[in-house]
């Protein structure tokens, strides 16, 4: 990238960062402006109410102590005038007898015929202090004057000052100054170190610029070089003023990209919320149909339009095919964060354009929300056609960035809802979300049709998750347990160990396969705690075996990669095992080949430490990972478990036999023992014996069974 491009890029980042700030504060600024207005009105009202009150009191009770009354009403002056405009009573004794002369504001009120008046703040002609005054007249032309000291007025309204926001803004890292100019070019608030005159000089020549789009410029400020970003603030399309922020030029030189990006991230959330507020505001003011029904960025029909259109189509569908297809960009947030919002907007625009170009007859596209689009398809022939349309639309989505090497790629997925019967738009979108969630990241086709089972799937997952949590928290001691499957020594025909396999069977959901619930436990990050229970129960079983006199029978248990990657794993393992007083050598940990391959260095190191403790390690499902052979010799393991896929092939494909043979002999050469998994037939067993496989496990000997059955099996069964 050339230096110039680089500079431009940093400029862009700074600018969008400022816009982010401006945007996130714009709501506050407009609120503050409003709040201040309300506060001022309130104050005026308060003065009037106080005056009314005085009128009432004065007419009913003579000789009231006005000092007390003023205190109660929290006003600083309370004067009662007679019909000659002379003060006859006051909380300030010295004022009594004072007469308003011609031209004095009090006299002005006296001679005109307004009943009430609240003045702007002015200087008191007697004591020279600033007050805000209000008057109220009685039918007999006597009147009451109430005054509040200006500093008290400010104390009240100051809480609503934009200055607070400016102070807040300059607290941010790296921002030098900030100031805010209102629509009349008045400096409303500024941070320390910026003078009003300098500001006025600065915008002197750029008056017109202030109201336009945001702009970034390098300029001199005093003796300092700064990067000035001017961001206009709007509320409901009304221009309120401009927020100006100065960044140090070093931001460019030092490439503070990351700091600024962090800011962006923080503001991303705020901006999202703001966007929602704006959308809501749009919907509220359907004064302009175009604004209300079309997205102003992409010019596609918007969500409001979509809902109305969809409702109509559903009502008039008849027997025609009708579907809603949702397109979701999966990496838009990242793009936005990395390259800024302007760029993000540009992308959305391109996407909209590409989508529109890809549409065929009877298809209509909408912008659903930030990075989601919806296409409604009518009268197509079949589900297969739908599927291929979905793929074309995804391609159009992706095309956006094609050829633009700088910005990587865009990825998208689609979910489809085929409408049957009467259904609401809300329900459709909810179900489309579900279908979208069901798309696996690595699936070849990123398309999913919603079907009713999906909803059930989600409910089921939630139930399983709840049960697992109860198990972990000790609230449910029944649903979760271990079964044990014997492993047989092929030389002695004796059971040499068991593999512990997790089981879940609850009243609510029935029997759940470990493939399903272990996977879920991993996704929901419950596997670590569940794993601790598995280790603990395996220890108890190992102790039981010892107690029954089967000294050398080991217990193997499956360890998930998410367990082993946790820093405290080894310590926890030691603690659990110690609490059961189980010997380390009675246990074996099985880890899948894929788990080891993916984080080889890290996991291999942990395996070494596990082995050091005296716990044996087995490489599970061997042969299913691709890179298997390359680093097998470095792996810190004792045993290789050949995946049952290779065993199953033994009596089907003669050619498959070679591979199994090779695995056995190679493993032996590396000094590992070999276990064959999933042995179901005598033929398989014969083959394995012939090729010196050490151990075998499978339904041929026993399925996984309960602890009791496992011990009975040991006592009674002679295998052979
Ligand atoms: P795995 O570790 O490969 O476990 C062996 C699986 O093969 C078990 O399925 C077992 O019942 C099955 N099996 C045993 N003999 C035969 C046979 O002769 N033929 C056939 N077709 N299958 C046989 P299961 O119990 O359904 O477990 C499935 C997987 O769930 C396990 O595969 C393991 O990856 C995972 N799993 C089970 N328990 C645990 C656990 O406690 N922790 C972790 N992390 N994963 C577990
Ligand atoms: Ca296993
Ligand atoms: Ca296995």
Notes on the protein architecture:
It is a single chain. The chain is of the alpha+beta class and 720 residues long. It has 26 helices and 25 strands. The strands form four sheets. The chain has an eight-stranded mixed β-barrel, surrounded by six helices. Strands 1, 2, 3, 4, 5 and 6 form a six-stranded antiparallel β-sheet that branches. Strands 8-7-11-10-9 form a five-stranded antiparallel β-sheet, sandwiched between helices. Helix 1 (3-60) packs across helix 9. The longest helix is centred in the N-terminal third of the chain and has 58 residues, at 3-60. The protein is elongated and about 125 Å long. The two termini are 73 Å apart.
What key phrases describe this protein's structure?
eight-stranded mixed beta barrel; 25 strands; elongated; binds ligand C2E; binds calcium ion
Structural class: alpha+beta
Q: Which hetero compounds are present in the coordinates?
A: ligand C2E, calcium ion
Bin the helical content.
40-55%
Strands in their spatial order, largest beta sheet: 17-18-20-21-22-23-24-25
Residues in β-strands, percent: 15-25%
Question: Major β-sheet, in short?
Answer: 8 strands, mixed, barrel
Given the C-alpha coordinates, what overall shape results? elongated
* Extended strand count: 25
How many DSSP H or I helices?
26
Supply Rg: 39 Å
Low-confidence stretches: 1-7, 253-290
Return the average pLDDT rounded to an integer: 81
Tell me the span between the first and last alpha carbons. 73 Å
